[in-house]
Design a protein that fits this description.
Helices cover about 50% and strands about 15% of the residues. The protein is an alpha+beta fold. The chain folds into 2 domains: about 5-75, no CATH class; about 80-120, no CATH class.
């Protein structure tokens, strides 16, 4: 890994993998509170005129909070919204992985399966 790659990896390690964004529509546009489940990001707010600008402003607020230098921000990545379908798929995948781990540890497992509408 060269120096530039090490620098990028160092800053990526500081950033949360996922953030929670609460958006409120106001007379002046959109206002957002950005946080994480683990509390590493709190009291982080931003605003924008429209949803497209809000995504940019949210990323700027996160990078500013974690003191990510301007020259590496575009190399690090970009937070994007996840669809509900993506979140449902992720939840199902995590349950399957958990069930497999339980089977590997104990040799048997009991779980509840529920009928849901297709998410694929």
């Amino acid at each position: 890994m060269n120096g530039s790659q090490q620098k990028i990896a160092k800053f990526r390690a500081v950033l949360p993998n996922r953030v929670i964004v609460n958006v409120e529509n106001t007379n002046d546009g959109l206002w957002a509170k950005v946080s994480t489940l683990d509390g590493k990001l709190s009291n982080c707010y931003t605003q924008a005129v429209n949803a497209t600008e809000l995504i940019v402003m949210i990323n700027d607020a996160i990078f500013t909070h974690f003191e990510i230098p301007e020259e590496v921000r575009r190399l690090i990545g970009f937070y994007v919204p996840l669809s509900n379908k993506h979140l449902q798929m992720e939840e199902m995948f995590n349950k399957i992985v958990s069930m497999e781990k339980q089977l590997d540890i104990e040799g048997d497992s009991e779980t509840t399966l529920t009928l849901r509408e297709a998410v694929c």
